[in-house]
Design a protein that fits this description.
By secondary structure, this protein is mainly α. It has a domain at 75-260: MetI-like fold (Orthogonal Bundle). It has helices spanning 10-38, 48-60, 70-102, 104-119, 122-133, 137-161, 165-173, 178-215, 221-228, 234-262, and strands at 62-63, 68-69. It has a two-stranded antiparallel sheet with strand order 1-2. Strand 1 and strand 2 form a beta hairpin.
């Protein structure tokens, strides 16, 4: 049997995927224990016990300065910004992307400017957003939207424009208008692709969020990470990174479940 033909079942696949993670954790545990033994005050590689203690304080104890539990306040602020920014980007993609894919005139008019915006590094636009929108929430949300919307628009427009032309010709033969073509032919097939595009864009969205919070914010996951880095507090930074990773994984899983439940045909199910 060739190696390319070996397809492990779900259970073994999960176990195989856990092996590299377990190895990485063991290696970290060994090196952190060795550094702690040589220097109990070492901050570069904190032990799992030290990180657990820091995480417990951050997630359970009220900060006397703010009157809130630090980690939950940071999480709430970051998720709110992320949700608004991603929501704006998704709605823009749905409208503009389908219009670009369905209507050639719109594609000719807006296609070049979308392409130009898509190749501009979003981080380079951050100073402009701060100047134009101030240092408040608007600039952070705008960075997320501007950062991921152009890619999503181009991806969705390319998918819609690549749909079989026979579908549009048959619908027009039956008397469908442009609006009906959009709603009944393009939209149902575009929604699964929109969710896939959104899943791929969540990683960059987190990057833009943390970058904006690190520069101008007084609460948020990115703000906290960059605040404590000056003290080399890896016992706080690493749990926060792990927490962000967990939130990202849960978000990706939720989007995948929504796509499978709403559009099983797009995943080869229900056939």
């Amino acid at each position: 049997m060739r190696l390319v033909n070996i397809k492990p079942a779900r259970g073994p696949r999960i176990l195989i995927g856990m092996v590299p993670i377990a190895i990485a954790l063991v290696i970290y545990a060994v090196f952190s224990a060795a550094r702690a033994e040589a220097n109990p005050n070492d901050k570069v590689l904190p032990t799992f016990l030290a990180m657990a203690d820091a995480a417990w304080r951050l997630f359970t104890q009220v900060d006397p300065r703010t009157g809130e539990v630090t980690a939950w306040a940071d999480t709430t602020a970051s998720l709110w910004r992320l949700a608004i920014g991603v929501g704006i980007a998704t709605l823009s993609t749905l409208i503009v992307g389908i219009a670009l894919g369905v209507v050639p005139l719109v594609r000719a008019a807006l296609g070049p400017i979308v392409t130009i915006i898509a190749v501009i590094p979003p981080i380079a636009v951050l100073p402009i957003l701060f100047i134009a929108l101030g240092l408040g929430e608007a600039s952070k949300i705008a960075l997320i939207a501007v950062g991921i919307a152009p890619y999503m628009i181009r991806d969705l427009a390319g998918h819609v424009s690549g749909l079989p032309s026979e579908q549009f010709l048959k619908a027009q033969t039956l008397g469908a208008s442009t609006w009906q073509l959009t709603l009944r032919v393009a939209l149902p097939q575009a929604l699964p692709r929109l969710i896939d595009s959104l899943r791929l864009s969540m990683g960059p969205a987190w990057v833009f969020l943390i970058s904006a919070e690190a520069i101008a914010s007084d609460v948020g996951l990115g703000y906290r990470i960059f605040l404590v880095r000056r003290y080399l507090s890896m016992d706080i930074i690493l749990p926060y990174v792990a927490w962000i990773s967990l939130l990202a994984i849960l978000t990706d899983w939720a989007l995948l479940m929504i796509s499978r439940k709403a559009f099983p045909w797009a995943h080869g199910e229900g056939r």
